[in-house]
């Protein structure tokens, strides 16, 4: 799709803001035209084909994977919601594209409910935690009926730091009381607060679920030091693993490591564990 200078949209209305603050999300209907849906959907499915993935796909860095999706970053029909909530000093810090075809057998029990932000939800100590980011979920397939892998939310839960759940994620557990599956047509967008407790339901329908997701946060949620050349300099080999972590060098390059999903690969976690310093009374230290 040819990129043009797009308007930045219009601010959200006071009624929309009130609804967002109450529920933690908004469903915006018919944001994309049929042609825009077709362009975005085709780009994602082509990427999946190039990857040789016939089944489900969850790919980080949406525009890196599919440059054709750049027009979704600031789509004028929906971008106004982002800057109305976060202001102008923002960037995309997390994005992904997803494909979920029909499941032919029942999946094992798994507690999918979560808030976005990873370790933010351990390491920010206020109650409720600050918003920090909002996310746009573009639907590129028909999820207008439940049971199609619908985005499932607990309205108002962005004000709740902890959600009662099972002792382990693989234990059968009922969905939170009041949870709803959001139904949407291709071209609709869900704008949601990253703190909103949500989950993806399983898709047992013949409709392949396709979506693109963009998370926005403040530009100061990023490293300010310029250390890009350090890993290529001989001094790098003399630094300890913790020192490399502090300089942004830990991880395997998949774009997700800094969120702390794999503590065992984080050098400082290992050092604290070896020294018996992971005090369970300190939430930020809990695995």
Automatic annotation (TrEMBL):
Classification via Pfam families: PhyH
GO MF, one annotated term: iron ion binding
Domain of life per record: Bacteria
Name of the featured protein: Ectoine hydroxylase-related dioxygenase, phytanoyl-CoA dioxygenase (PhyH) family
Organism: Mangrovihabitans endophyticus
